[in-house]
Every structure is written in C-alpha cells, then in structure tokens.
C-alpha cells in the first residue's frame, strides 16, 4: 500500500518578507529530508542568505531526526520567517526531553543538540499537551 506524501502548507505574504510553513510528518527515516527541503524552499522564496538557509536546513534535519528516532511518533514542523529571523518548532508526542548525547571522536550520532546550541541564536524545549516542542531561532533576514 503506497504511503501518502506529507501535507505541507506554505504561506507567503507578498508585501513583506515573511512566510510560514506547517508540515505534518510520519515517523519515517525520509521525514528529515522532506522537512529540510520544505524549509529551504520557504527561505529561498524569501531571499534569505545562503548561510541562514544552510544553517536552518542542518538544524531542521537534526531536530526532526531526533523526533523520528527517539519519539517514534508523528512530527509537526512549524517554521516562521521574517525580519526577526527564522523560528522553527518541532513537536512530537513524547513528553521525554531531548538529552545531549555523549560525544566521542568516532561517534556517528549524538551531535544534533550540540549543533543547535552552537548555531542557534536562541533555543529551548517546552512541554505540550501531547508531548513536547523543541524550538530554535536563527539570525535575521535583513
């Protein structure tokens, strides 16, 4: 039975450099790629700089991967971009907070939250009625 494609809603205001993305993703290994592409599309439409686009794509991929791997539930991605920068929220249905993994030189996983901490202007986690929301804010659009 073929799987339905994730549903995305992209909203863009023509009169100002703002945009919003809402995306529901399955707990599937391909979901981080879908999320990354959607955020890149939004930011490119807003003429965001390459550095901001690349950083947002990296962090979205990391946070959505964490939700898919550790929560194993549907994932809600929200992204809002404007003159203030980019705010991303990733919600899942697990109330367990994310944990920074042990870092070893040869580890192939466990760096997602370290990257968020290093690259985001602000970030955090809040409990939601049906789980938690991991969020971060990046730069500005100028």
Structural write-up:
It is a single chain. The chain is α+β, with helices and mostly antiparallel strands and 142 residues long. The chain has a single domain (7-99, 109-138), classed as Heat Shock Protein 90, CATH 3.30.565. The protein contains 3 helices and 6 strands; from the N terminus they run ββααββαββ. Strands 1-2-3-4-6-5 form a 6-stranded antiparallel sheet, with helices on one face. A hairpin with a 4-residue loop joins strand 1 (7-13) and strand 2 (18-25). Helix 1 (31-45) packs antiparallel against helix 2 (50-71) and helix 2 runs antiparallel to helix 3. Residues 7-16 have low confidence and may be disordered.
Distance between the termini: 46 Å
The number of helical runs is 3
Radius of gyration: 15 Å
**What integer is the average pLDDT?**
85
* CATH homology superfamily: Histidine kinase-like ATPase, C-terminal domain
Helix content: 25-40%
What count of structural domains? 1
Write the CATH architecture name.
2-Layer Sandwich
Biggest sheet, spatial arrangement of strands: 1-2-3-4-6-5
- Low-confidence stretches are 7-16
CATH class type: Alpha Beta
SSE layout and pairing:
Blueprint: E1 7-13, E2 18-25, H1 31-45, H2 50-71, E3 75-82, E4 85-92, H3 112-119, E5 122-128, E6 131-138
Antiparallel strand pairs: 1-2, 2-3, 3-4, 4-6, 5-6
Record keyword descriptors for this entry.
142 residues; Heat Shock Protein 90
Give the gist of this structure.
With 142 residues, the protein is of the alpha+beta class. It contains 3 helices and 6 strands; from the N terminus they run ββααββαββ.
